[in-house]
Write a structure and sequence with these properties.
The protein is mainly alpha-helical and about 140 residues long. It is built from 8 helices and no strands.
Length: about 140
């Protein structure tokens, strides 16, 4: 289970509010169990965002990972939910690549949905302005952090 702070940070990374290099360093500093827990939470966010094949292709390109790397090959295969589960079982050395790829996939799917549908600021806190410290603190208060 993710903490509210982790949920906010993952969404800030996907929205480009926090830099990818900061996110990579934060993720790298975690132990293996925490890395896998964070990736499970990120996978849940991605499933909620309902990515499309174009989102996956864009995420691979944006990640600047070689498309021939295992995480990229897996994520591009049919049945995304199955592929997300497989990504979580990769060896530890692959996890930073998986993290970078999944952040980019969440970003691509979320950005597309923001263009296609009106934002639900009431029920979806992650649609609020996460660059505003007052908004972030309000979310933390509302979610009991």
């Amino acid at each position: 289970m993710l903490s509210v702070e982790e949920e906010i940070l993952l969404n800030q990374l996907a929205q480009g509010i926090v830099s990818g290099s900061e996110g990579d360093a934060w993720f790298e500093a975690k132990n293996e169990d925490d890395k896998r827990r964070l990736l499970r939470g990120l996978s849940n966010f991605i499933q909620q965002a309902r990515p499309k094949p174009d989102d996956v292709a864009g995420a691979i390109a944006e990640s600047r990972l070689k498309p021939t790397l295992t995480p990229c090959i897996l994520i591009a295969m049919p049945n995304l939910n199955v592929q997300l589960a497989k990504l979580l079982t990769l060896p530890e050395f692959e996890l930073p690549r998986v993290f970078r790829l999944l952040i980019k996939l969440l970003a691509a799917a979320d950005n597309r949905r923001r263009r296609e549908q009106p934002l639900d600021l009431v029920n979806h806190w992650w649609h609020r302005d996460l660059s505003d410290l007052d908004v972030v603190n309000d979310i933390k208060r509302a979610r009991g952090a």
